[in-house]
Amino acid sequence: MLRAPILYLSRRRSLQRIITAMPLTARVAYRFVAGDRLDDAVAAVRRINQFGSSASLDHLGENVSQERAARAAAEDYLRGFERIAAEGLDANVSIKLTQLGLDISPVLCQELLVGILRRAAELGNFVRIDMEGSAYTERTLELALAMHARYPNCGVVLQSYLYRTAADVERMNQAGMRVRLVKGAYDEPAAIAYPRKADVDDSFRRAMQALLRQGNYPAIATHDEGLISETIAFAAAQGIGSDRFEFQLLYGIRRDLQERLTGLGFRVRIYVPYGTEWYPYLTRRLAERPANLIFFVGSVLRERRARR
Ligand SMILES: Cc1cc2nc3c(=O)[nH]c(=O)nc-3n(C[C@H](O)[C@H](O)[C@H](O)COP(=O)(O)OP(=O)(O)OC[C@H]3O[C@@H](n4cnc5c(N)ncnc54)[C@H](O)[C@@H]3O)c2cc1C
User: Fold this and answer.
1) CA distance 299 to 293
2) Rounded to the nearest whole angstrom, what is the distance from the C-alpha of residue 145 to the centroid of ligand 1?
3) Mutate to test the pocket of ligand 1, among 250, 268, 284 (most ligand atoms within 8 A of CB)
């Protein structure tokens, strides 16, 4: 019930300024975000690697409206690749096309993406293109497919809440494109997305099976224990080895699950966001789970009381 209003607030820039200026709110954010700087993210990845998992670095930022900001974001990613290589980390990167200026100009976005993919290829690394709201779905997949023909070291994300996803799974499987499967984190209308959780989960299950059977090293990205168990059972029944797919989890969520899955011998990758632009990311995490919202509101009220 609260999901749509929270996701609406995630897009309000004026509220973002107020909330991000509160020190305690920032501390809540750092439950889900590794820190402000690349150094913080590198330290988090080192810990994750020590636990036997790999990572995907996300330098937070989306919907940039200035070319300068898009170019700066691309530079940040190039720096990220250099650090990963220099420190021998087991990590790739996740990017958002609107961070690379998709809202400003598709030409600019493609130019920056090519620079990132080229450097990643030189370093033997991989770039995951995150999936954003449905206004970007087709553009993201088209650009990813065009890039994949020249740079096979990229992959995309498909969201099981969208009706179109079954067809997109087939399309990506045929192209040999690596897919990260998620449920979907944005507020989408019933005209294009399943409103009921049970249907989103059914769609996830079907997509997971198609990706495991015909996909190229899929990433099953969920904290849903039921769907994780079904993935393990399906892979075992089909004789699909644990080296042919990976699980992905978000930084700060269900560490116990991460440890259990690595302990069972499965590959686990942790999505590690860092940077100061954490507001939209944090609100999406709050929208997913009411308990997070209660924790967050409690922190804000405590801070206000302390200031009085
Ligand atoms: C690695 C990774 C990358 C992602 N990339 C994208 C992307 O590119 N585009 C996109 O739209 N979405 C992305 N998502 C988010 C995804 O779409 C879901 O919104 C998110 O994963 C929550 O759904 P769930 O699959 O965990 O299942 P749910 O049914 O929502 O949750 C299952 C259980 O997981 C735990 N849980 C879930 N969310 C939280 C939370 N916020 N805080 C604490 N516990 C929680 C709870 O125990 C819950 O009962 C990504 C998720 C992961 C794991």
Assistant:
1) 10
2) 25
3) 250
DSSP H helices in 21-66: 23-29, 38-50
Residue 305 identity (one-letter amino acid): R
pLDDT value of residue 18: 67
Sign of CA dihedral 185, 106, 116, 100: negative
Task: Report the candidate in 122, 26, 104, 112 with the shortest Cα–Cα distance to residue 74.
Answer: 112
| Closest-CA residue to 178 (of 203, 205, 204, 214) | 214
Q: Are 157 and 180 in contact (CB under 8 A)?
A: yes
Q: How confident is the model at residue 285 (pLDDT cuts 50, 70, 90)?
A: confident
Distance CA 260, CA 6 (A): 31
Q: What domains can be seen in the chain, in order of their start residue?
A: 33-277 (3.20.20.220)
